[in-house]
Amino acid sequence: MLNIDRDLGRFRDIVKGRVRRDLRKYMSSGELIGRKGKETVSIPLPQIGIPRLRYGENKQGVGQGDGDGEGAGEGQEAGDQPGEHALEVELSLEELAEILAEELELPKIQPKGQKNAASDKARYTGITRQGPESLRHFKRTWRQALRRTVSAGDWDPKRPVIIPIKDDKRYRSFEVQKRPRSAAVVIYMMDVSGSMGQEQKEIVRSEAFWIDTWLRHNYDDVETRFVIHDAVAREVDRDTFFRVRESGGTLISSAYKLCLEILTKGFPVSDWNIYPFHFSDGDNWSQSDTRQCVDLLGESLIPMCNQFSYAQVDSQYGSGQFIKDLHEAFGKDERVGLSRIPSREGIMDSIRELLGRGR
Question: Regarding beta strands 183-191 and 221-229, do their DSSP bridges make them parallel or antiparallel, or are they unpaired?
Fold first, then answer.
C-alpha cells in the first residue's frame, strides 16, 4: 500500500508538472472549462505514456521506444494494433489554483472582512455520562464496562464477554462554535454590442474560468453575478452571459450603474470582499459617457472594492479608447487593475496583470 501511495504521488507530480508546462496552452484553448466538475477538472494529457507489458521472447530488453515494424507509417492499410489515446486525469480546483499561483507568481489574497452569516462548527470538548446513542464513545464505554467487570470479580478469561450496562456508557460532548467565513462577490460585466464577436466572448469565458478558480481558492464563499450591456445593462445568468449576442450602441455607464445597484442592495462592504470585472472592446458611445464612467468609478465603485478590474479584448471593430481613458484617470491607483487582451494567447498575461496585486 505504501508503494502504491508513493507511486500515485509521483504520478500526480508528473501530471502537475505537465499542466504547469502547458499552462498557457490550457488557458488559451479553453478546453478545461467544459471538463469542469463541482470540485475537479478533467485534464487530457496525451503526452504521458503508459507502460505496456509485452508477452513472449524479448530480444531488445524492456523499453517503450518507437517501433519499426509493419504499419508504423502514415497511409498504411488497416491494422490490428491500438492507436494513441489521450490519458485523462483529474485535478482538484485547489490543485489547479496552486499551479496557477506558482506559474503566475500570484500573491495570496488577504480578505479584508468576514461574512456575518458564519457557519456552525461542532467541536468535541469532552466525555459525559449522558447523550444520544449517535455520540456514544464505544472505546470509553467498553473500557468502563471492563473496569467494572474486573473490579466486581466477574471477569472470566475463558469466556471474555463484556456487556455494558447503562452506567458504563460514555458519550462525546460538544459545543457549537460560530466560525466566521471570508466571503467574496464577483461581478462580471461584459459588453455584448455588435462589435464583440464570438471569439471575444470565448476569450472572456476562458479568463473568467481562471479568475473564478483563483478567487475560490482564496475565499470560503464566492458569489457571482453577471451583467451584460450594450446601450442598456441587465443582470443575467451564467449561460446567458456567455451566449447572448446583442447589437446596437454601447453605454458603459449603464453597466457600472447596475453593478453599483447590485452591490448596494445585497453585499455590504463590511462583510464582503468585492471584485467587479468588466470586459469590453473599449468602444464607448461618447466621451461624455466615459466621463460619467470615470465619475462612477472614482466616487462610488472603486472605494467599495478590493479591486476593480477592466480587461479590454481587441476587436477589429472597436476603437480601444476606453482603456486609455482609464489609464489616464486611474493608472496609479492600486485598487484598479487594467489589462489588454490581444488574442487568446494573451489570457495568461492579462490574469497576471489583474490578479498579481494580491488585493
Answer: parallel
